[in-house]
């Protein structure tokens, strides 16, 4: 639904998806609500029954049964990682080495210095960085597409104080009932004086269209919030440019 909502903001309410300031504003207005919806979906998904050979068990049921039969590892940083992956990246490589008398492999005897490495003055490599690089190299063959660039989003305000002032004003202005003009949120700006409850999205490049229902009682107030905040941001930026 959020994708359909953002499509509507671009179609009716002046959202420019290529404008970094608009994306920055979207984050501040709706990111918390998006995360909340994602968490709700996760909870519902983990409780829904899975058909087939799993006998209508839910993911939560399977997790509970696994913990009951196999136990729970607490405070284990490697919990949940497959044993093969642990052995691959943390195990011992090569054949076991045979040590001479009085050597254990944990260090040389105090009277044996012939095999001690010389100090080259370089800092030892960070093991975490080495591990990350190794995993990245192993997974590179599984990546079959070019990297996807993250859309640029940044505050349009040069000084942090200006951004803080704007966000404080947003909380004030969105609590009012005043609707800005030319942002598609006034009834006089709607076709037939009715706010649409269906938005069509195009998930691919083959022309397929999917209608998505956006109940007015949920999504129209969010469109109003967007319009109020965008109007405020535009007016403040205009004043700063003229100052």
From TrEMBL:
Residues 131-143 have a biased composition (Basic and acidic residues). Transmembrane segments: none annotated. It comes from the Eukaryota. Pfam families: rva_4. Residues 103-144 are annotated as: Disordered. Residues 3-61 form the Integrase core domain. Residues 112-130 have a biased composition (Acidic residues). This is Integrase core domain-containing protein. It comes from Mycena alexandri.
